[in-house]
Amino acid sequence: MSEELWQKYYGQPNKMYGNKVQFGMLLDINKCLACHSCTMACKTTWTSGPGQENMYFNSVSTQPYGKYPRRNGANDPAYFDYRFSNLYQDTPKGTYPKLWQFYLARPCNHCTDPACLKACPTRSIYKNEDGIVLIDQDKCEGFQYCVRACPYDKIYYNSVTKKSQKCIFCFPLLEKGQEPQCVKSCVGKIRIFGNLMDPESTISKMIRDPSLGVKPYDPQTSLKATHRVINEGERRQYRPDFGTIPSVWYVPPKNIPPEEVEKYFGFGMKGLLDEPHQVSGPTKMKDI
Ligand code: SF4
Ligand code: SF4
Predict the structure, then answer these.
(1) How far apart are the C-alpha atoms of 243 and 158, rounded to whole Å?
(2) Nearest residue to 164 via CA among 146, 187, 184, 178
(3) Which CATH number applies to 3-277: 3.40.50.970, 3.40.190.170, 3.30.70.20, 3.40.50.1820?
């Protein structure tokens, strides 16, 4: 993302929701171990209660699965991957010895233009002043329009409480000056968390400058305090073609065919990002 694009995208308050802070995350796919420490840290913190058995606010799935039959003519290699997380996992693509796969860790994207929010008939979903997308549990009536609308499958219905629930970016921890559980627990140190709208934050510097890698204990970089190793390289969003403008960014896998990178992380840098506030809604609704 160029400086010019950053100014357009994050250098001003969100035109639709007014937030002047947008918390986001940058994950270096190349370093994920698929250890699921993040998933378990999240689950034991937020989704270990009644009705939450199948909720994973943070998930890690092996990509691609490749063998799952596509339905309804969906000509989309990633579509079923996130819908049926971990089905047929560890089935590499390609022909030996040129096989490839990668691990995709995903929290909610806390989108700039959230499809879940727009779909809610009771106005229970809102973006808070930090750009975090939340569901007011007192107002939610469990219609599940949000569950169907989120193209990333990141809202879950609790059949015990009859409410929808989702990742909250650990905002109670943020208020105590701590990072989210998935960031703190990451064994691979692949995650950087911060305010995308702050020009001085580590994450915004790294998204604006793809040549900026964070190296641990490097006395030459002002970013040494993070003690995390993020590779240099283009920063992209996962499936930006859905049009919700995710706040979660990735360093895409480097050792897979470039056309495959485009399938998962394509269109972001030259398409939708050029006019980030013109997007009117998701390009795809699920067929549940
Ligand atoms: S990823 Fe889905 S649940 Fe999260 S803010 Fe975007 S549309 Fe809403
Ligand atoms: S804790 Fe970090 S390295 Fe382990 S699966 Fe999660 S994102 Fe990947």
Answers:
(1) 27
(2) 146
(3) 3.30.70.20
The total number of residues written for the chain in this structure: 288
Query: CA torsion sign, 172 to 174 to 177 to 178?
Result: positive
**Ligand 1 center–CA 41 separation, angstroms:** 20
Residue 233, both tokens: 């390289």
Cis before 97 (ω within 30): yes
Q: Could you state, in order of their start, the residue ranges of all structural domains in the chain?
A: 3-277
Q: What whole-number distance in Å separates Cα of residue 174 and Cα of residue 191?
A: 15
pLDDT digits (tens, 9 = 90+) for 89-140: 677 888 888 889 999 999 999 999 999 999 999 999 999 999 999 999 999 9
Q: Which pair of tokens denotes residue 200?
A: 């001085």
- Ligand 1 midpoint to CA 188 (Å): 25
pLDDT at residue 285, rounded to an integer? 38
- 230 Cβ below 6 A of ligand 2: no
Ligand 1: which of 155, 245, 249 to mutate, judged by most atoms within 8 Å of the beta carbon? 155
Mean pLDDT, to the nearest integer, of 185-199? 92
Backbone angles phi, psi at 153, to 5 degrees: 55, 50
Ligand 1 site, residue 194, Cβ cutoff 6 A:
no
Q: Are 274 and 5 in contact (CB under 8 A)?
A: yes
Q: Please give the distance, rounded to the nearest whole angstrom, from the Cα atom of residue 185 to the centre of ligand 2.
A: 8
Q: How far is the CA of 263 from the centre of ligand 1 (A)?
A: 20
Q: Which two tokens stand for residue 99?
A: 């096989």
> Is pLDDT at 19 greater than 70 in this prediction?
yes
Tokens matching residue 237? 């969003």
Distance CA 85, CA 258 (A): 23
